[in-house]
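Example 5.3 — Radical SAM core domain-containing protein
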Amino acid sequence: MDKLKFSQYNSLLKITSNSSVIYNSKEDKCLIIQQEMNDIFSFNPDEIKDYNPTLFNDLKSIGALVPIDINELQEVINLSKSVDNNESEFTLIINPTMNCNFKCWYCYESHILGSQLSRNTLKKVFRLIDNILEQKKELKTFVLSFFGGEPLMYYKKTSMQIIDYIRLKYDLYPQINFSINFTSNGYLVNDLILNHLLDGTESNHFQITLDGGKEYHNKVRDSGKKEGSYFKILDAIKLLIKNNIQVLLRINYTAENIDSVAGIEKDIRDIPIADRENLTIGMFRVWQDDKGVDIKEKVDSTKLLFSESNFRIDINETILDNLKNPCYADKKNELLVNFNGDIYKCTARDFNQENKYGTLNENGEVDWIDDKLNEWENIKIQSKACQSCRILPLCGGGCHQVNLETKGLDTCQMGYNDDDKDNVIMMRLSEYFVNEEV
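Solution (predicted structure tokens):
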């Protein structure tokens, strides 16, 4: 029999006064043990086998014991690369404009008045779509996503044109599942846009943001009208989900506005239960406020309020699973076309020359800036801190963009200490394993 060793991805956490849990992040499995066995990792695996064969087999079954010659780190790296290089899916993101009808204080983007896709750039995008569909023989999923700026501005001249073009391809590629996404403030949703989206056979998704309750939201997203933008955006959300369009309601909160978020729950209570199936609530702290007052208890109680009212809560914001489900920008088969034909990867940084990765040419091909693309593709899991981390299979080493910005720093890309890592594990155990038993 092969010699065994303890996995480098084991964690031991106390869960009650007399019991602990051994969790293996690589296999995403756990084992409950009595607390008097907490020194288990000080024993030689062979000693455990002789002393307690059942425990020995249980440890093997959760991946806590592995063959001594196995390179677990390389297996995790290989898994990360296989996910990032998945040829069965493609995400094409379009910025139809860098203009916006709001000027939110926390927005990182440089708004460009009057900017929009030109007819020439639209033709390049059409050719790009053709190239993707013709060349990606293993493609099973194609996500067309609109970002910005506010992507519903100039809709008939920009987004509608691209949607109409890609719909011509559905019958030619019946093996591909097409979907259309919008990251929007929702204010410009109208019957024309709704009816156009409902004309297609693809699935449609929106991410729409509220900035706290009515009072705070209207201060941040000033519509220039007396009634504000809050209820108009809520009406748009209700209209979309009534028509079976999926909506992620992203609630941006701060230490200042968190108490007002409960008011949103009151304002959406009239949504029928059937329509709620199309709505997911996600709560995200505004990044400029991230190092402020600890408001976790308030956030948790607010999430519970929505949950008890039969609204679905987005667990992706709390459950770390970035290696198997990384950011779309980490994927090889992802790119963003700006309104002027410039190519980017990450949507969470400004669309400037520094962050540019290439240009879309007349043939619908990307002229990549090769050295930048190569660095992007090979930057993940390079720091020693990541390579020795016990939750690397959950974290994935952080996204490509964060790795670029912390290049050369031998620190956790997520800023976690050991207590943070334990909390990540406990959150995962409580959401997945406990809920499954219930």
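Remark. The chain has a mean pLDDT of 93.
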